[in-house]
Amino acid sequence: MSSSTSPTSPSTARAAAAWAPRVVVGAVVVALLLVGGTAIRVWQLGRVDERQPVDMIVVLGAAQYDGRPSPVFRARLQHALELYEEGVAPRIITVGGAAAGDAFTEAQAGEQWLVENGVPGQALLPVDEGRDTYESFEAVAAVADQRGWSSAVLVSDPWHSLRSRTMADDVGLDATTSPTKRGPVVQTRETQLRYIVRETGALIYYHLTHGSSDFSDPGLG
Q: What are the DUF218 domain coordinates in residue numbering (predicted)?
């Protein structure tokens, strides 16, 4: 006695065909909610200054040219200097490595600028390890653990605040944010929108892969 597989009944095929568009629409809606919700959070935290007394001010690096911070980096350093002068923390940590062929790391360029603007050398610590933001935070966390520091206020551009704080929390730092409100990144609404979109994608990528998707923007310098 032989057996055979019954073909899919017409009613089953019709039901599957009816549900397929709903599944696609549902997936699109979920994706839009995820992207939209993340973008709103990026925008919201970028508008908040969480400064409070902490162990260290951590300045995230940006482009530098032969030891001279770019306008984007200089805006971050200026803001960190103001926090230091207000007594938010007794020390500033500068972070960031070097691109191929550079004589200075971002951390060194930041340290040099702060010294030139009145911060004593003993209040500065350059951490130039790590190939991206996440690895830089890992290096900062290791140094902080060795020295008994735990709390930090992070200084970067507004739209980088949420991703930075997320990474800092993941490596064990008790982090808040105080973004700079000056510099090329916040000059126009078009630039702000572009960076919100890019940071939204970068944060979603980080949550999905736990990898950093850092990028530079030579148009801003």
A: 55-200
- Indicate the range of 9-23, 52-66, 184-198 predicted with least confidence: 9-23
Q: Which residues contact 64 (CB under 8 A, 6 or more apart)?
A: 70, 73, 96, 102, 104, 106, 109, 110
Domains of the chain, CATH where assigned: 46-209 (3.40.50.620)
> How far is it between the farthest Cα atoms of the chain?
94
Entry pTM: 0.80
Mean pLDDT value across residues 90-102:
87
CB distance 67 to 143 below 8 Å: no
| 171: nearest Cα among 155, 156, 152 | 152
Please report how many Cα atoms fall inside a 13 Å half-sphere around the Cα of residue 116, on the Cβ side: 12
Interval 114-159: pLDDT, tens? 999 999 999 999 998 877 889 999 999 999 999 999 999 999 999 8
96: left (phi over 0), alpha (psi -120 to 50) or beta: left
